[in-house]
Amino acid sequence: VQLQASGGGLVQPGGSLRLSCEVSGSTLQYFAIGWFRQAPGKEREWVSCISGNSKYADSVKGRFTISRDNAGNTVYLQMNNLKPEDTATYYCAADRAGSRTGICRALPRFYEYWGQGTQVTVSS
What we know:
Layout: E1 2-6, E2 9-11, E3 17-24, E4 32-38, E5 45-50, E6 54-56, E7 64-69, E8 74-79, E9 88-95, H1 96-101, E10 113-114, E11 118-122
Parallel strand pairs: 2-11
Antiparallel strand pairs: 1-3, 3-8, 4-5, 4-9, 5-6, 7-8, 9-10, 9-11
């Protein structure tokens, strides 16, 4: 199973980006997908996840929206009203057990497969 994250870039505060996470080697419906981010010098932080439900970290709630296209084997993270503190490398990850339960999880240790990361920089 491979995950390919894309869509990062440089954006001004208040701007928007849409990240994509494409799953290959298996079928998206068999996985819960999580988005995590890591800024330089900081620990990896959970951002959002989706299975039968979807959840968001408090820091992004109301600004980010996660969605999935099972036919396209892709999960999206729409990020609006971006702030400088959102600057980080964003990673998507896949959790097989989370698909069976329909409940996505926030801890990185539950995710078996990880993408390579895409850089998001929010700066004026």
